[in-house]
Amino acid sequence: MKLKGGKQESSENDEGSKGKMTLLLALVTLISAFGSSFQYGYNVSVINSPAPYMRDFYNRTHFTRTGVPMDNGLQMLLWSLTVSMYPLGGFFGSLVVWPLVNCCGRKGTLLINNIFSIAAAILMGTSELAKTPEVIIFSRFIMGIYAGLASNVVPMFLGELSPKNLRGAIGVVPQLFITLGILVAQILGLNRILGNAEGWPVLLGLTGIPSLIQLLTLPFFPESPRYLLIQKGNEDKARQALQKLRGWEDVDYEIEEMRQEDRSEKEGGHFSVLSLCTFRALRWQLISIVVMMMGQQLSGVNAVFYYADSIFLSAGVDKNIVQYVTVSIGAINVVMTLLAVFIVESLGRRILLLAGFGLCCVSCAVLTLALNLQTTVSWMSYLSIVCIIVYIIGHAIGASPIPFVMITEMFLQSSRPAAFMVGGSVHWLSNFTVGFVFVYMEEGLGPYCFLIFCAICLATVVYVFFIVPETKNKTFVEINRIMAKRNKVEIQEDKELNFHIVPGGQATKKEISSSKL
């Protein structure tokens, strides 16, 4: 790659940054996503179908202990805690992303994380036998810690393994497995399978199986080459990992890119969360991630899955078939996310974000109208189901998968762990908020609660349209250069491809060194 007149010019070496989908890269992607992301989705919806039997277990245990039936207020509180402890644990899991991935590596963090999942699965699976409802709530929190780590580390790990021309598609794979986890939980949660009085403890306990598979297989795959070279200083292992992942010996171009970034980071060091939040040259990247993550969760997607059955019942669906309708929605979610894997590199991230949040906005508005009129207009119940389907399609193609891809792409190696920690914390805190308050919103506002989600989706669309750039098929430095204009900083380029960010025309030593590649 050469620089002429301050502009970047492509050469034959640019091909070195491109790659193909090798068998090893495909396997490590599938194992990481199945062993981690799958469980995030599974535990989002696993308590949906067996909810009546779990609540009955809470009531029976309370009556056995006190001799008094549980009142409705306490029952609602305990169930809200059962739902919301999962995203609250996810928030705390996100808080330890930065230290763990820097200390133990991306792959090492995923392996350690399996301990949380296996422990929580054993506790939940034996909770009825031990007659301890509290264990379910506690285990949901532990499972949330696992999901909080997994939801951040898997996209980071796969983003660093991927060549730039496959980074978007591979980055959507974790979301694909999240939707698969939701679908499998819905299928297994059918009354005739495990969603019954006898089977629900087994349903909760099955979540440990993917973790066990990952624990046994992931050690045979390479660590992130960027972590090995830049953070561990082991170029030989980084080169070997790249050669295995790319399927060819000549990986000099990518190694040289990493060397340049390594030299800059040895001078400037790694970003902490505090330094990331105060660093002017990354201001709009950070704001963009916060807005997209808040939009992703506060748009109400998990409210739809947490309370899907009740939404369909209120829409007039017969209670005998509501579970099968929910499974069908889960299948649509999987199919549309799979579509996103194939179109993200052709249409780009920005288009999918705008289309996704736009569809969610319109469907929430129409759903509010349909739910209000369903008692007077018979076909409105069918329109409600169509609105939910359109909402799921919108979230599946853009709002759910793309924000995590953008965190990987909008930040360099030195700031990426801190950025994932911030983005993940916002993601899970927003998730917790929706999970905890939606049942009260539904009771107090009725169908009008979806207008709040509509407004949030609209605000996110406006922000993405005016602020978020397209990052398709661009290197991390090229994206950094695009955002420099938004941050009102100047990027100076030297002959060695060291990129200097100079806020307001001047820069401190740290600002220069931490903005080089």
UniProtKB/TrEMBL annotation:
GO molecular function: D-glucose transmembrane transporter activity; fructose transmembrane transporter activity
Any Pfam family hit: Sugar_tr
Annotated GO CC locations: sarcolemma
InterPro entries on file: GLUT (IPR045263), MFS_dom (IPR020846), MFS_sugar_transport-like (IPR005828), MFS_trans_sf (IPR036259), Sugar/inositol_transpt (IPR003663), Sugar_transporter_CS (IPR005829)
Keywords assigned by UniProt, alphabetized: Cell membrane, Membrane, Sugar transport, Transmembrane, Transmembrane helix, Transport
SUPFAM superfamilies: MFS general substrate transporter
Keyword Transmembrane listed: yes
Major place of residence: membrane
Statement: the UniProt record of this protein carries the keyword Transmembrane helix: yes
Subcellular location: Cell membrane, Sarcolemma; Cell membrane
TM spans (from-to): 21-42, 76-98, 110-130, 136-158, 170-188, 200-221, 286-308, 320-344, 351-373, 379-406, 418-439, 445-468
Catalysed conversion reaction: D-fructose(out) = D-fructose(in)
Domain Major facilitator superfamily (MFS) profile: 29-472
Gene Ontology biological process terms from the UniProt entry: D-glucose import; dehydroascorbic acid transport; fructose import across plasma membrane
Membrane topology of this protein: Multi-pass membrane protein
Record family assignment: Belongs to the major facilitator superfamily. Sugar transporter (TC 2.A.1.1) family. Glucose transporter subfamily.
Name of the molecule in the record: Solute carrier family 2, facilitated glucose transporter member 5
Species this chain originates from: Ceuthmochares aereus
Lineage: Eukaryota, Metazoa, Chordata, Craniata, Vertebrata
